[in-house]
Write a structure and sequence with these properties.
This protein folds into 2 domains: about 40 residues; about 150 residues, 3-Layer(aba) Sandwich (Glutaredoxin), CATH 3.40.30.10. Helix 3 links the parallel strand 4 and strand 5. It is built from 6 helices and 10 strands; from the N terminus they run H-E-E-E-H-E-H-E-H-E-H-E-E-E-E-H. It is an alpha+beta fold. Helices cover about 45% and strands about 20% of the residues. It has a 6-stranded mixed sheet, with helices on one face. A two-stranded antiparallel ribbon has the order 2-3.
């Protein structure tokens, strides 16, 4: 009887060890995946110094148009690409950083896909007064390589590109989150702006 119990305990212990050996790699992979989503994506072009910014002219939700030349006429511009209609955080992001960028002498150009009327409806609902450039066919988003990040193949995720007054993309970042607090985004941007003026 004692031997039977011993054999049963041994088999039970072996089963637990086998299960732990199987599960451990899965836990590690899951943890790495979660960590990757929490960190801004920094691809080959994350520090894209000397990359020429593609030219564009887009209609806006204010009834006028905006071009790259307009945006960088008086200094650098931050191009903000996002998913657009149906993404409340994407819209609220605009007033979150607009005044801060203005104080830094950086022009904010928010670019979203979708129909102009849809964008205007979400703007009004969320109280966003700043103009939004309408990239209805995502041609500008594609030209800036803003598609395909974090699983969104046909629309931008939540991305930023800093364009210098000379028309070069100096810095870009892609986020998994649909809203990035100013205190998280701006310190990194400030470091890049300091580099540009030093």
């Amino acid at each position: 009887m004692t031997r039977t119990r011993d054999r049963t305990r041994t088999r039970s212990r072996s089963s637990r060890l086998a299960w732990a050996a199987f599960a451990a790699p899965l836990v590690v992979v899951a943890a790495l995946a979660v960590a990757a989503l929490a960190i801004p994506e920094q691809g080959a072009d994350a520090d894209a110094s000397d990359t020429e910014a593609p030219d564009f002219t887009l209609p806006t939700t204010h009834g006028d148009s905006v071009s790259l030349d307009d945006a960088i006429a008086d200094g650098p511009a931050l191009l903000y690409f996002s998913m657009g209609p149906g993404c409340d955080g994407c819209f609220v992001q605009i007033p979150e950083i607009a005044d801060e960028l203005d104080e830094r002498g950086v022009e904010l150009v928010s670019i979203m896909p979708g129909e102009r009327d849809w964008l205007i409806a979400d703007q009004r609902r969320l109280g966003v007064s700043q103009p939004i450039a309408v990239d209805s066919d995502v041609a500008v988003s594609e030209a800036y390589d803003m598609l395909g990040h974090y699983g969104h193949s046909d629309v931008p995720s939540h991305s930023f590109a800093l364009v210098t007054a000379e028309g070069e993309v100096a810095w870009e970042r892609h986020y998994a989150e649909m809203f990035v607090p100013a205190e998280e985004l701006l310190p990194e941007l400030d470091a890049e702006l300091d580099d540009l003026t030093s």
